[in-house]
């Protein structure tokens, strides 16, 4: 069965149920209409990229990224905003494939660094180990505040 990575295309919205599963497993449960509209907006934004990992004809992973500019120096970087492999396919190397392809896309787009934040919760320990084993360093703490 073939494995491919490619950028999200509008017709991938026809596989919204596969994407809903990934969002649920990522910890972002949502409803069909909301995800459909969100992905359409992301697809139409020039600085956002959604890389899909497809096995056969099933979407088994996604990497959502945004190309950003540095404030502190010249150049651009890629921020990894969402990254998930379907739980039925984990521990088989698919995450590494998707992460490497995400890095290649960032390089092709002229980015000098790829960054991400990951929650400081026990259930994220495996994800943290995965990122560290793929060359990421824990260099900062993230903060957030709701404005609603």
UniProtKB/TrEMBL annotation:
Q: Which residues form the N-acetyltransferase domain?
A: 3-148
Quote the Gene3D superfamilies the UniProt record gives.
3.40.630.30
- Cross-referenced InterPro entries, in alphabetical order? Acyl_CoA_acyltransferase (IPR016181), GNAT_dom (IPR000182)
Name this polypeptide is given: GNAT family N-acetyltransferase
Provide the species name: Staphylococcus succinus
Q: What lineage does UniProt assign to this protein's organism?
A: Bacteria, Bacillati, Bacillota, Bacilli, Bacillales
